[in-house]
């Protein structure tokens, strides 16, 4: 049955499935690592026990999410050598080094200090423990730096030449490879999205416990109130910044990938006298038109060109075989933007409640925060879909097509591994996610239990082997002499 499918399409679906699963965890842990560093710093500065309680509460969740992020990420690297071996052969000389740097610098930094962060507070002292927290937070951000540099190069390739004999991309300037034209915008937009994702998860957890205490007619703990307050401050400050960064990223995309923006806007036709902003429509690639379109005249030109009458090209200027799938890009972009403005609205709502003095008693605000808790995860997935599907039909934009990047594998082989991934991922990561939700369902308490080692001493990975008989006899003699 799987043999009737297209092998390239199945390989794309498999990579999309694994990267989507993986991306959920870094999108959460990048922000959570920084949040933990802030909490630990506030505890050392103020000695207010609620910050220590919040640190111990969230560090358990961080440890589990970090582990699942690492495991889910390993699988993707193998797909470069299996499903996408041709792409790896051609682009490897350029993207191989940055991906190796991500492991050697960022991941090793996180892994090296993670144990100290989790278990070392009472063993290494407060200064080194704080350094470990900062190192883990910096490592997660550095990891995003290298991965997004590689991904951005695939969208806006620079600093390379093509070997005419092998067809390989060979680096000529690694600074241009790393700091390619779209990288700064993509990095700022993605990392900010990660911070917002964490803020809304933390805020949703805090709001759920505020609602539960209210139903039980019990006062919420100071830790719960602080958790919710800090998350709402992040929403107020970061949401408008994210919208601004998204606008800059869009302008950069218009310059370097105009077909993607045309698909995002649903502009099948060119508009010489100003383009409308379509709020709704059903993209029809076959007929090359947007059915049931509802839009605001000239607003797209104002946003993209800062001029109501500025002309904008449409997909009618792009050959059919170079157009991205408009339906997916059009709607994923609108999901991302709608969530972004909903985040801004919730942040402003919380600011109004704070000014009125009922931030902790506004139950409708708390209900909205609970609903919005997973919104950041949905938004980053929608943004990722917009970015990656909008790059099609290329893996290296304008230079290497997706169909020419796939390994010569049979569809049945790719399909079988895809089914196996789906089953294993939902079983393993579904169980991990369920346990994370169980941890979140319990509110932080005073003197929150800390993570503890399983054993009081070093782990003997080889087991405990009996000492030689002669050594035992000498030890007994020493005891007798004493």
From TrEMBL:
Region named Disordered: 456-482
Localisation: Cell inner membrane; Cell membrane
Name this protein carries in UniProt: Cytochrome ubiquinol oxidase subunit I
Transmembrane region(s): 20-45, 57-80, 100-120, 127-148, 187-207, 227-245, 328-352, 364-385, 418-437
One annotated GO molecular function: oxidoreductase activity, acting on diphenols and related substances as donors, oxygen as acceptor
Family: Belongs to the cytochrome ubiquinol oxidase subunit 1 family.
Membrane topology: Multi-pass membrane protein
Protein's GO biological process: aerobic electron transport chain
Comp. bias (Basic and acidic residues): 470-482
Keywords, comma-separated and alphabetical: Cell membrane, Electron transport, Heme, Iron, Membrane, Metal-binding, Transmembrane, Transmembrane helix, Transport
Broad class of the protein's primary localization: membrane
GO cellular component: cytochrome complex; plasma membrane
Pfam families attached to this UniProt entry: Cyt_bd_oxida_I (PF01654)
């Amino acid at each position: 049955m799987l043999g009737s499918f297209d092998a390239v399409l199945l390989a794309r679906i498999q990579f999309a499935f694994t990267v989507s699963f993986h991306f959920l965890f870094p999108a959460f842990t990048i922000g959570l690592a920084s949040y933990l560093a802030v909490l630990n710093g506030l505890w050392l500065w103020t000695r207010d026990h609620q910050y220590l309680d919040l640190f111990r509460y969230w560090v358990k969740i961080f440890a589990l999410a970090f582990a699942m992020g690492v495991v889910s990420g390993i699988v993707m690297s193998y797909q470069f050598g299996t499903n996408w071996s041709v792409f790896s052969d051609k682009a490897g000389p350029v993207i191989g080094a940055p991906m190796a740097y991500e492991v050697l610098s960022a991941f090793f930094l996180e892994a090296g200090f993670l144990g100290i962060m989790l278990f070392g507070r009472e063993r290494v002292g407060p200064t080194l423990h704080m350094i470990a927290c900062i190192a883990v937070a910096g490592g997660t951000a550095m990891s995003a730096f290298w991965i997004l540099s590689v991904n951005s190069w695939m969208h806006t390739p620079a600093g390379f030449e093509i070997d005419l004999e092998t067809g390989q991309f060979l680096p000529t300037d690694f600074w241009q490879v790393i700091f390619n034209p779209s990288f700064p915008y993509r990095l700022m937009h993605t990392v900010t999205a990660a911070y917002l994702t964490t803020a809304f998860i933390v805020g949703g957890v805090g709001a759920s416990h505020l609602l539960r205490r209210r139903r039980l007619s019990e006062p919420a703990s100071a830790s719960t109130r602080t958790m919710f307050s800090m998350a709402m401050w992040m929403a107020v400050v970061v949401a408008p910044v994210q919208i601004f960064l998204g606008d800059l990223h869009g302008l950069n995309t218009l310059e370097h990938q105009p077909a993607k923006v045309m698909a995002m806007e649903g502009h099948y036709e060119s508009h010489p006298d100003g383009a409308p902003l379509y709020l709704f429509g059903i993209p029809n690639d076959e007929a090359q038109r947007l059915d049931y379109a509802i839009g605001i005249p000239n607003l797209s030109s104002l946003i993209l060109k800062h001029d109501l009458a500025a002309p904008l090209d449409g997909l009618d200027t792009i050959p059919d075989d170079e157009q991205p799938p408009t339906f997916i890009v059009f709607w994923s972009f609108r999901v991302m933007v709608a969530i972004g403005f909903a985040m801004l609205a919730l942040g402003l709502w919380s600011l109004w409640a704070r000014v009125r003095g009922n931030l902790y008693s506004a139950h409708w605000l708390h209900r909205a925060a609970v609903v919005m808790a997973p919104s950041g995860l949905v938004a980053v997935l929608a943004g990722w879909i917009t970015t990656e599907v909008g790059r099609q039909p290329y893996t290296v934009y304008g230079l290497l097509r997706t169909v020419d990047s796939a390994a010569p594998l049979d569809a049945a082989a790719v399909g079988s591994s895809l089914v196996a991934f789906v089953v294993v991922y939902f079983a393993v990561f579904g169980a991990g996610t369920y346990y994370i939700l169980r941890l979140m369902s319990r509110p932080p308490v005073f003197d929150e239990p800390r993570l503890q080692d399983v054993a009081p001493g070093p782990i003997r990975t080889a087991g405990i082997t009996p000492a030689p008989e002669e050594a035992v006899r000498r030890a007994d003699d020493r005891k007798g002499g004493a």
